[in-house]
Amino acid sequence: MLMKNFFLFILCFLFATAPSHAGATFTFTSQWTTGGEGVFRVTNDTSQTLQGWTLQFDWGANITSAWNGAVQSHVGNHYTIGNLAWNGALAPGASADIGCIFTTTTPGVAPSGLIFSGGSSVTAPVITSATTATTSIGQPFAYQITATNSPTSYGATGLPAGFTVSTSNGLISGTTTIAGTFNITLLATNAGGTGSAALAATVSNCAADGNGDGSVDGVDLASMLGAWGQPSAYDINHDGITDASDLAIVLDAWGLCAPVGPSGYEKMPTVTQRKIVGYYPNWAIYGMNFPVTSVRADRVNVINYAFLIPLDRTMPASWDHIVSEYRGWDYADYTPFLQQPPGTVLSAGVGLFDEWADVKADNAAAALTMSPPFKEGSNFAHLRDLKQSHSKLRTLVSIGGWTLSSPFFSIARSAQKRLDFAKSAVYVTARYGFDGIDVDWEYPGGGGLNQNGLGDPATDGANYVLLLQALRDELNHQSTLDGKTYYLTIAAPAGDGNIANINASAIAEVVDWINVMTYDFHGSWDSYTGFNAPMVNVDPNPGTADWCVPGATELYLNGPKPGSGVPASKIVMGAPLYGRAWHNVEPGPNGDGLGQPGTTANSGPTGEGLYPFGYLLSNGYLTYSGGTFVGAGGYTRYWNSVAQVPYLYSPTTKRFISYDDPQSISAKVNYANEMELGGVMFWELTNDTTTVGASLMDVIYEGLRLP
Questions:
Q1: Residues near 707 by Cβ (< 8 Å), separated by ≥ 6?
Q2: Contact 350, 408 (CB under 8 A)
Q3: Strand partners, 454
Q4: What percentage of the chain exceeds 90 in pLDDT?
Q5: What is the rounded average pLDDT of the residues 546-562?
Q6: Catalytic residue positions, numbered
Q7: Which of 19, 161, 293, 530 could join 522 in a cystine, given CB atoms 3.0 to 4.6 angstroms apart?
């Protein structure tokens, strides 16, 4: 799932890792007779964020290109490299990796005398304002965020409708018609980072309930009399003074206020009601600088942790290749570290693809024997903490993905390997505190990355059901041991050809739900521009009518023949929080680039033509104000009323970007409600925006109705 070359992304962007106190290091990543590639790593081992840094060293090689840093000077053999504009702030314990390509006459000779120097230190703000606030329906509300260390911007998430926050001065204000207690996250940011704090804002449903406890009673009367003749919360008619006219309102409203409906986290459905599933990619801690602690766990009830790697000890050697530059390992390098219950030797199973991100293990071998199984500060530890503070949240470990699916073909074809894989996967699930397993095989029958000749459309579908049944049986067995409820799900294809290669109705009988990846219908792999996730496919090719969200969903609902469909409650519809781009696109007859020839895009933060929604807003492609999105930086925003999706086009850069925004996500959520689907899934949690009022996750959360 969206893992195409994601490890290139890891090497090409800032890494934020745990402190190594190494200062600066250099590692060869590849070498040849006349040159090679390498990575410098600099680490901030101070306790404060460094603003600006340089790296100096001596080296007889000639650096021909560098990324994540700029060569500021090269005199003789002495180099000075400095930060770029976007990675100049280095948090405590964080590292930056600067990659380079070089030529040399002395291969194997590394740089020497590495000196890392940090600039000025900046400490992130600490919020000092009150942790509670009260108001009532229809009454003006004002709350000032205050913080130390001179914040340059402010924010708040979880605001009730009608409240807004000023990003420039931190004032939260407005009126709301929704009663309840709202768990608001306050944010204050400077160059040193972002500080956060919790605010519990209680909105009473009657103005006379001055203390917000749900009733107008003697406490309110005593408080009113104590404020008599003065401005106070009991100046209900807002004439500037608490007096007899306000007293009359209190006496008239005496007693319990009307019942308050669920709001805030109380509105979150349980997993058995509706699913709101967000994928978290474990590499997010690196270049995206998005740790698990940044996840908005009040907006999802399922987090799928992506990805762990499926492993087959006897997989054909010709298949043994991972399209990744992450430490250069292939499947055979991972198999010695297959996770299995003590005292067993399994033929197939699951491994940690990145043991540092997952559990903070120093190496793959250490991860097998760690006790406890993960360290504090690791992704798995943070997921545990999120569940402790969000009672309705469940976490599933997702295995496979676009890049790591090849072993599924050989595992699924062997009864013993299916059983062993299930034992390993469930062992991992229980050992690390997950609530279930999500299988992301892309795709049974073939068609995924680097899978030419691997798939067998005639047998993979049936074998997939058997593999899932083995997992279901093993999960049920684990439940008898520890009394926990475990979930089993899959990430399922949306293309009609790939759907035909799986037995969806049989799968639905085994799994708890099916996450349908209703996106990536078009991308720069196509020779002409189109929409990533349309509600109606406007592609003129008649054979692609089902290449849209309803089209794919209804292939599952209806099945290949009457009575063979998947129950709506077991279908979780996918939504993309990102867009896809094409380059070299001419305007065409309508001037908007739609349906015009284009080439593969190598732009966006990953260099793959993939644009997270938040990135579009924060990097000058889009602006948002007063509920309206407007193209920026030479881009014009268009809306296709048939497909119900927005898109951007710039005739200057000749770039076309298909993406989703609150308007299009709302249309998708409405469809999920109308079809009574099991919920909504999205890829992925780092892609949303922090812009107040523009969050796609808010649209999903607020729009998804209970059954």
A1: 273, 274, 569, 676
A2: no
A3: none
A4: 64
A5: 94
A6: 442
A7: 530
* CA contacts within 13 A on the Cβ side of 416: 6
Residue where a domain terminates, one of 79, 101, 122: 122
Residues 515, 571: Cα–Cα separation, whole Å:
6
User: What's the alpha-carbon Rg for the chain, to the nearest Å?
Assistant: 27
Domain presence at residue 143: no
Residue 507, classified by CB atoms within 10 Å of its CB into exposed (0-12), middle (13-18) or buried (19+), is buried
Burial (0-12, 13-18, 19+ Cβ within 10 Å), 163: buried
Task: State how far the Cα of 76 lies from the Cα of 149, in Å rounded to an integer.
Answer: 42
The DSSP output letter for 84 is: -
Helix axes 696-703, 662-674, angle to 10 degrees: 20
Residue 574: pLDDT above 80? yes
Structure token digits, residue 286: 């690196």
Instruction: Give the DSSP letter of residue 609.
Output: S
Task: Give the residue ranges of DSSP H helices in 564-604.
Answer: none
The total of structural domains in the chain comes to 2
Degrees, nearest 5: CA angle 329-332-334: 65
* Three-class SS state of 63: strand
Burial of 372 (0-12, 13-18, 19+ CB in 10 A): exposed
Residues 6+ apart with CB under 8 A from 640: 531, 534, 538, 594, 646, 647
Q: Could you tell me the residue range of the domain that residue 434 belongs to?
A: 275-576+660-703
Helix, strand, coil tally for the chain in percent (to 5): 25, 30, 45
Using the 3D structure, point to which of 76, 97, 122 is the last residue of a domain: 122
Element (DSSP H or E) covering residue 498: helix 496-499
CB-count burial class (<10 Å; 0-12, 13-18, 19+) for 21:
exposed
- The 3-class secondary structure across 505-527, one letter per residue, is HHHHHHCCEEEECCCCCCCCCCC
In a domain, 259, yes or no: no
- Span 73-104, pLDDT tens digits: 899 999 999 988 778 888 788 888 999 999 99
170 located within any domain: no
Q: How far apart are CA 594 and CA 592, in angstroms?
A: 6
Is 295 within the bounds of a domain? yes
CATH number at residue 28: 2.60.40.290
Could you report the per-residue pLDDT of 305-346, keeping only the tens digit for each?
A: 999 999 999 999 999 988 876 788 999 999 999 999 999 999
Residue whose entry in the numeric block shows the structure tokens 């406007």? 538
Tell me the CATH number at 316: 3.20.20.80
Question: Does this model's pTM top 0.85?
Answer: no
